[in-house]
């Protein structure tokens, strides 16, 4: 895939007038189509092919939402756009970059260039109200900014921000960045989980040199992302994978490895749009090099999954033009955070039960959040052992990232998102819940040391804001230094299924009220998101997960014969077959576990289905481990 300099990759936000945009498009006749890109509540992006001539003739209509409509009942706006009220208008957003998506397999005969589609980010409007993910983020940030400005009017002296005259604050700047991990492999290639796990434990892959088609694709992707203005900062191998083999032609075969690509931070909306474009670019570039890419959170059970650590920052722009980080304290060597920084992390942690459903809304996402894979399972933070020496604890939910010599770099890294997390909605939830903690911190009138003590309190110690029975900070390895029972007691028991996670939106009404106060998370939006997530959970459980598990059960076949079998072979097979029957075979007297899950779903008994899903996952791991041991004892073919 060639990265050409004479193509138009991006129309920069707010820098061109309507006439200049029209002129630019006329200068690039290879751009044949336009597409309004709306994001539904599941994070899916719309894609149409609108002849560019129609855009040129109806530019004004694109900005007032009358040019294009879509069938809202066909995207995830569950309960909002219904079959008998499905019309959704698409409203172009001129405040972000527009990208041109080129089809390198379709060359325009007139120009000799690939045919392009101008992708225009858009809002989705139903019955005159915006109902999409981009609108949730936009509304949420407007609310947070407005409330912060009110706080600055009320509290003139903020602990840790003594160097800032709050009367000089002209604007609030929100920044965000995501790190994208993904697995890449040659088509139809499979690797043994044991081999992948061994390579991971032995740390054979992380930051190793890329080779062959993987290296080529990585380099091309980085160059192409730069053309789109994403300013890539690094591409490297991640912890997962095995060493590829070389075929007779000198090409790499049996590729199975994990990669990461990072790019520069931006505004939250542009960051989310950039991430969407990055996934498109990466997938297409690697495909052009004969490689499959998956952004699934846990594509291989038992091996490292794909995270998408999300960095959240907050700054003030003064009337002089100076930028001041609102999380960073005046003395970086004396204190970890300002009062706003302490409040922000406390707000996120205290309210995370109602944030988590918007971060981890799929079976795949929750499969990743298991102990032992550097994926967070507990609602806990880490600040470092001392302000003078920044440190990073990779076992916690949200950690402080700081550089003593560069206060502007102070930010929080939320480690729970994955590449398919709806970044628009997740970032909105982060900032809104952070605001709740900021309000509490400033209203308390406490010093920085007192705020640090609140965040660092032991479970059982009352706090002015944080819950008495919970702890919220740990500088320990959360996986190795606590037992599962201790983790659950100190930091709360994490949800194991989509059903359990979505139930938090009902179990914690006072925390949900924090989100709803913004008007970004209106009740109809919350209900629609929850209904859509549960519909996908039920459907995937019955139509994908159980059939896939059934195939695994069928593949666990008897490998020994009576003449050559050892007592160990017969013992192991008896255990394996008993488990196979329990999982998958019905009798007149007993229903299999698979059948009981289906029946619970069909009866609307989702709590039972959720419990049985947990049991199914445990039993499937047990089956695969037993069968692996059994196979290893075979020394001949039957």
UniProtKB/TrEMBL annotation:
E.C. number: 6.3.1.2
InterPro entries: Gln_synth/guanido_kin_cat_dom, Gln_synth_cat_dom
One protein family per Pfam: Gln-synt_C
Segments forming domain GS catalytic: 144-567
GO function terms (MF aspect): glutamine synthetase activity
Gene3D superfamilies for the chain: Glutamine synthetase/guanido kinase, catalytic domain (3.30.590.10)
GO CC annotations on file: cytoplasm; membrane
GO process annotations (BP): glutamine biosynthetic process; nitrogen utilization
SMART domains reported for this sequence: Gln-synt_C (SM01230)
Family according to the record: Belongs to the glutamine synthetase family.
PANTHER family: GLUTAMINE SYNTHETASE, LENGSIN
Protein name, as recorded: glutamine synthetase
Species of origin: Sporolituus thermophilus DSM 23256
């Amino acid at each position: 895939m060639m990265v050409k300099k004479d193509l138009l990759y991006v129309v920069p936000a707010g820098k061109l007038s309507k006439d200049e945009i029209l002129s630019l498009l006329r200068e690039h006749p290879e751009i044949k189509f336009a597409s309004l890109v709306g994001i539904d509540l599941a994070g899916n992006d719309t894609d149409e092919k609108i002849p560019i001539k129609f855009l040129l003739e109806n530019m004004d209509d694109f900005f007032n939402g009358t040019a294009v409509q879509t069938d809202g009942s066909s995207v995830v706006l569950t309960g909002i756009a219904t079959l008998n009220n499905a019309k959704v208008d698409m409203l172009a957003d001129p405040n972000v970059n527009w990208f041109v998506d080129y089809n390198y397999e379709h060359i325009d005969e007139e120009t000799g260039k690939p045919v392009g589609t101008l992708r225009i980010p858009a809002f989705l409007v139903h019955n005159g109200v915006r109902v999409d993910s981009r609108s949730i983020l936009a509304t949420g940030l407007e609310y947070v900014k407005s409330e912060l400005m009110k706080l600055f009017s009320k509290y003139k002296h903020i602990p840790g921000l003594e160097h800032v005259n709050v009367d000089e604050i002209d604007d609030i700047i929100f920044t965000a960045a995501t790190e994208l991990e993904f697995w890449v492999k040659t088509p139809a290639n499979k690797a043994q989980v044991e081999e992948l796990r061994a390579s991971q434990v032995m740390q054979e892959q992380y930051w190793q040199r890329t080779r062959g088609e993987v290296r080529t694709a990585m380099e091309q992707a980085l160059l192409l992302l730069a053309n789109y203005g994403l300013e890539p900062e690094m591409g490297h191998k991640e912890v997962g994978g095995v060493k590829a083999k070389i075929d007779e032609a000198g090409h790499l075969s049996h590729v199975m490895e994990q990669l990461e690509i990072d790019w520069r931070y931006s505004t939250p909306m542009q960051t989310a749009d950039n991430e969407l474009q990055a996934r498109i670019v990466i997938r297409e570039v690697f495909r052009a090099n004969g490689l499959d890419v998956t952004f699934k959170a846990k594509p291989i059970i038992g091996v490292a999954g794909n995270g998408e650590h999300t960095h959240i920052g907050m700054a003030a722009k003064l009337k002089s033009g100076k930028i001041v980080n609102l999380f960073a304290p005046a003395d970086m060597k004396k204190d970890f955070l300002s009062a706003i920084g302490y409040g922000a992390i406390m707000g996120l942690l205290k309210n995370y039960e109602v944030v988590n459903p918007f971060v981890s809304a799929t079976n795949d996402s929750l499969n990743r959040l298991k102990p032992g894979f550097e994926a967070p399972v507990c609602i806990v933070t880490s600040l470092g052992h001392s302000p003078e020496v920044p440190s990073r604890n990779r076992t916690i939910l949200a950690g402080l990232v700081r550089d003593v010599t560069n206060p502007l770099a102070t930010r929080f890294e939320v480690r729970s998102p994955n590449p398919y997390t709806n970044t628009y909605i997740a970032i909105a939830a982060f900032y809104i819940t952070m605001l709740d903690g900021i309000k509490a911190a400033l209203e308390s009138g406490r010093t920085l040391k007192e705020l640090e003590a609140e965040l660092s309190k032991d479970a059982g110690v009352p706090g002015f804001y944080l819950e008495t029975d919970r702890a919220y900070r740990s500088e320990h390895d959360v996986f190795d230094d606590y037992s599962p029972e201790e983790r659950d007691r100190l930091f709360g028991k994490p949800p194991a299924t989509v059903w359990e996670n979505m139930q938090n939106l009902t179990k914690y009404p006072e925390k949900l009220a924090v989100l709803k106060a913004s008007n970004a998370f209106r009740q109809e939006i919350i209900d629609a998101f929850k209904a859509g997530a549960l519909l996908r959970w039920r459907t995937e459980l019955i139509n994908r997960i159980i059939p896939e598990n059934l195939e695994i059960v069928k593949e666990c076949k008897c490998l020994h014969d009576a003449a050559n079998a050892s007592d160990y072979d017969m013992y192991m097979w008896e255990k394996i077959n008993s488990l196979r029957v329990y999982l998958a075979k019905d009798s007149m007297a007993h229903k299999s576990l698979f059948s009981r899950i289906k029946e619970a779903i069909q009866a609307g008994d989702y709590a039972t289905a959720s419990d049985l899903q947990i049991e199914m996952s445990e039993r499937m791991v047990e089956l695969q481990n037993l069968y692996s041991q059994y196979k290893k004892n075979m020394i001949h073919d039957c």
